[in-house]
Write a structure and sequence with these properties.
Layout: H1 2-11, H2 16-24, H3 33-43, H4 48-59, H5 65-74, H6 79-90, H7 93-104, H8 112-124, H9 129-136
Length: 143
């Protein structure tokens, strides 16, 4: 079990909860997954903070704070780490939303239906309505 956990961590970062869930599928009765994970955490091999940092770095250029926060919650990251990560994401969220929108649409919405379609796209990417309004109500020259 220990070897399998090391192999997983050798490929990418995992949160404590996520790695525990992954190992449960292979666990036998005498395996103590919590002890293995605690040992890895103590040695610095398993870190929720590092995992959170990696997720934020990988996702912040494609998604908004809501989607990133939701993914971190699903992976079992603590609320304190999520709040810190979201503060970091929100620093550049408007610029990221504009860039994502620009790649997809290239022009401001001409009708109410088009505005709604573009807003739904940005919302699906995890951007809040305040950011969406700023992006879609900005003149093309301001971008």
């Amino acid at each position: 079990m220990r070897q399998r956990a090391l192999e997983y961590l050798g490929k990418r970062e995992y949160s404590y909860v996520e790695l525990g869930q992954k190992l449960k599928t292979y666990a036998e009765e005498d395996d103590d997954i919590a002890a293995i994970l605690d040992d890895f955490k103590k040695r610095g091999w398993l870190s929720d903070a590092r995992f959170t940092e990696q997720i934020v770095h990988a996702r912040s250029h494609k998604f908004g704070s809501a989607k990133i926060a939701n993914e971190l919650r699903e992976k079992g990251v603590s609320q304190e780490l999520i709040e810190t990560a979201i503060e970091q994401v929100k620093e550049n969220e408007l610029d990221n939303a504009k860039e994502i929108w620009r790649k997809k649409f290239k022009s401001i919405p001409a009708s109410r239906d088009e505005w709604a379609r573009q807003a739904r796209f940005l919302q699906s990417r995890g951007f809040g309505f305040d950011v969406i309004k700023k992006v879609l109500n900005t003149k093309i020259d301001d971008n």
